[in-house]
Specification:
two-stranded antiparallel sheet, 9 helices, elongated, alpha+beta, about 350 residues, 5-stranded mixed barrel, 7 strands, about 40% helix
């Protein structure tokens, strides 16, 4: 198990900044080439500074700058419809993302309910899959995240079901970014040196090749050694194996409780998700809450009272200030529970 989630964060809407790394990097390269051609060390220094800024901006964005905070430490309950192992839905540069992801349909809803259907009957959990004013106010779009299921055997059609996306963090982005940040400085230094007329173009190309090779070697080692996102990092050990819904019909799937930060991910087309997931627990609920049929407002209300409120309350106790204060008291700092080792309050002797 690893705590990769500690390396990542979201930003308030007012602090969101689009990624500028590509523009900075292209400008740095162009300026570096020109400075080297005309022998201008000042231009080389500016080029190097822009390169460093590009690397740091890329890592800023990937490590949380692309996530806009909607609400922290939320508790949601839904039916597991899809498990996505690390790398299964990634290609190219996106392979750097080693998060384990999964999707849920908000309980007690069925897989044939649309976003508007859920919103009409559920004032409690429907907000998690709906567009929110924060990102919307920044002009960021919302396409949502959906999974396709069959409508039913009777018509052979299909339906895109709106789901809540969840990500269990891996450490790769953080670990590789450490390498990129460190190696950005020698790269910038080469840009400065190569802009000094004394050094020939061949020497500069060799120096750049050496720095690039070192970056690839060290980055590759870190890439291979990093901890991938793993559901077991956040799954309650008593939950056992989690089973998703039938991939054709959307029926079935374990009902699970999830705690984590609710964010808008601007790194894609735009959708809400729990990122990072901090805790997952499988629940044993009444069959009427399994989402076999569309949920009525009355069923949603009963689910809230019987499942959502009590479970989220109990799990949320770990963040209660009074609970945390009590845990710090000397009498609660035992390593072996008093009922086992037989210790008791000291009393008079004899």
């Amino acid at each position: 198990m690893a705590n990769c989630q500690k390396h990542y964060h979201c930003v308030p809407p007012a602090d969101f900044k689009p990624m500028a790394a590509a523009t900075l990097a292209i400008t740095a390269v162009i300026l570096g080439v020109i400075s080297g051609a005309i022998g201008n060390p000042i231009g080389g220094a500016i080029s190097g500074a822009l390169w460093i800024a590009a690397v740091f901006d890329l890592c800023r964005f990937l490590e949380g700058g692309k996530l806009i905070c909607l609400d922290l430490k939320v508790c949601v309950i839904g039916r597991l419809v899809e498990l996505i192992p690390v790398g299964q839905d990634k290609s190219g540069f996106d392979k750097m993302d080693d998060d384990f992801t999964f999707n849920i349909v908000m309980s007690p809803h069925s897989s044939i309910e649309s976003v508007s259907d859920v919103a009409a009957t559920d004032p409690f959990q429907s907000r998690y899959i709906q567009q929110q004013p924060g990102p919307d106010g920044l002009g960021l779009g919302y396409e949502g995240e959906s999974v396709t299921f069959s409508k039913g055997a009777e018509d052979g059609g299909s339906l895109d079901t709106e789901v809540l996306h969840n990500e269990v963090k891996g450490c790769r982005v953080h670990d590789v970014c450490i390498v990129l940040k460190i190696m950005a400085f020698p790269t910038a230094a080469v840009a400065v040196v190569c802009s000094i007329p004394v050094f020939g173009s061949l020497a500069c190309l060799i120096a750049l090749a050496i720095v690039a090779l070192l970056t690839l070697i060290i980055g590759g080692i870190v890439w291979a050694a990093t901890h991938n996102g793993d559901l077991n990092d956040v799954l309650d050990p008593n939950s056992g194996t989690l089973d998703p819904a039938d991939p054709k019909t959307g029926l079935g799937g374990d009902v699970i409780l999830i705690r984590g930060d609710w964010v808008y991910d601007a790194g894609h087309g735009g959708w809400n998700e729990i990122h990072p997931v901090r805790y997952v627990q499988k629940l044993d609920v009444s069959a009427e809450f399994n989402g076999d049929t569309p949920a009525s407002a009355e069923l949603v209300e009963r689910f809230k009272k019987e499942v959502l409120d009590p479970w989220c309350f109990e799990v949320g106790k770990t963040d209660d200030p009074d609970v945390r204060d009590n845990q710090k008291k000397p009498e609660n700092s035992w390593k072996i529970h008093p009922s086992i080792d037989g210790c008791r309050e000291p009393g008079p002797i004899g």
